[in-house]
């Protein structure tokens, strides 16, 4: 899904932002919140992460129209210390509560050296890299995970107990593109599970370990689990089953920032001179390709496939507005 489509039209970012914002407003979101989530989704498209960009709009808008997600949440910080914060999402999209949490973590890191925040009682927060990239803007390291509420099946195989939770790390650089790992902790394969597992059992067990870091921090520590007791506050919005954990580190508290960036730049540059992986025509570290796409597509437009267009046309018809393409 996150490859450039062979057949597409180009849609300029501002055009897409205005359209997506109008869709969310029709679903009941405030103008300010609609502009915010539209901007985050379009930024995700610009990086080529189509799975978590504007293609998510029909699902998000549908959840609001169906009364499963609060279109006008009152996001609140319900607990705070000099280095930590806890945000309640009031049943809305995670793009609101988790963004507040990320901003709080950034501010606390710049003031105290380290900052961390959780968010809970909200729906999907999209791609985790949206939040770690906020740390890059102030020369900090960012880390983010999220999880949704679920139960393991006692009869299932342990290697499948991952729930594909998102995880992101972001490391600032100087002249090179920053290192940004933005991934779902899962493996997409067309092979039957048993066959894929036999080919690479180590990958599945590493995935299992990483996913349960997400569950513990973005789920249990965020306060979304509550298996054996009624949730407090009670669940009003059916879709509000997710949480997140975001932490930020101020590099300058550990060593001079210019020295760090110089070494990171050299490290990235040397990696990009290596031979590409089989089947690829370039060598890069995570985040490099997304960085280049964002620069280029901001100028020439987002490639929007036929299927992508159809999804957006369908939700536009549902709320009664025209599409810009």
Which class do the helix and strand fractions yield?
A: alpha+beta
Could you say how many structural domains there are in total?
2
The number of distinct β-strands equals 9
Radius of gyration from CA coordinates: 20 Å
**Total of helices:** 10
Low-confidence stretches: none
Largest sheet: 7 strands, mixed
**What is the name of the CATH class of the largest domain?**
Alpha Beta
Q: If classified by CATH, what would the architecture of the largest domain be?
A: 2-Layer Sandwich
In which order are the strands of the major sheet placed? 2-3-4-8-5-6-7
Reported by name, the CATH topology of the largest domain is Ribosomal Protein S8, Chain: A, domain 1
Cα separation of the termini: 21 Å
How is this structure best described in words?
The protein has 325 residues and is an alpha+beta fold. The chain folds into 2 domains: 1-66 and 289-325, Hypothetical Oxidoreductase Yiak, Chain: A, domain 1 (Orthogonal Bundle); 74-272, Ribosomal Protein S8, Chain: A, domain 1. The chain has helices at residues 13-26, 31-46, 57-65, 94-112, 129-136, 193-199, 201-220, 257-272, 288-300, 306-319, and strands spanning 8-11, 76-80, 84-88, 114-122, 140-148, 166-171, 179-184, 242-250, 302-305. The strands form 2 sheets. A 7-stranded mixed β-sheet has the order 2-3-4-8-5-6-7, with helices on both faces. A hairpin with a 3-residue loop joins β2 and β3 (84-88). The chain is globular and about 50 Å long. The model has no long low-confidence stretch (mean pLDDT 94).
């Amino acid at each position: 899904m996150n490859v450039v489509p062979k057949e597409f039209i180009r849609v300029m970012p501002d055009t897409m932002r205005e359209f997506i914002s109008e869709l969310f407003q029709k679903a009941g979101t405030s103008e300010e919140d609609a502009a915010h989530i539209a901007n985050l989704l379009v930024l995700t498209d610009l990086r080529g992460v189509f799975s978590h960009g504007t293609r998510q709009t029909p699902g998000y808008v549908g959840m609001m129209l169906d009364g499963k997600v609060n279109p006008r949440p009152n996001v609140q910080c319900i607990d705070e210390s000099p280095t930590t914060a806890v945000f309640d999402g009031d049943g809305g999209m995670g793009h609101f509560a988790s963004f507040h949490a990320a901003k709080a973590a950034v501010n606390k890191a710049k003031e105290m050296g380290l900052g961390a925040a959780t968010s809970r009682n909200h729906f999907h927060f999209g791609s985790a890299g949206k939040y770690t990239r906020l740390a890059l803007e102030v020369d900090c390291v960012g880390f983010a995970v999220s999880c949704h509420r679920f139960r393991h099946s006692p009869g299932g195989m342990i290697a499948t107990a991952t729930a594909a939770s998102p995880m992101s790390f972001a490391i600032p650089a100087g002249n090179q593109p920053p290192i940004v790992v933005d991934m779902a902790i899962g493996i997409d394969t067309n092979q039957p599970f048993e066959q894929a597992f036999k080919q690479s059992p180590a990958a599945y067990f590493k995935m299992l370990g990483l996913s349960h870091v997400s569950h513990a921090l973005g789920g249990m520590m965020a306060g979304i689990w509550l298996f054996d007791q009624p949730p407090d506050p009670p669940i009003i919005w059916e879709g509000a089953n997710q949480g997140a954990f975001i932490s930020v580190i101020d590099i300058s508290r550990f060593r001079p920032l210019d020295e760090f960036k110089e070494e990171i730049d050299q490290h990235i540059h040397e990696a990009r001179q290596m031979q590409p992986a089989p089947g690829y025509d370039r060598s890069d570290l995570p985040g490099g390709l997304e960085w280049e796409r964002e620069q280029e597509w901001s100028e020439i437009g987002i490639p929007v496939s036929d299927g992508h267009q159809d999804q957006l046309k369908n939700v536009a018809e549902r709320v009664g507005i025209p599409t810009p393409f």
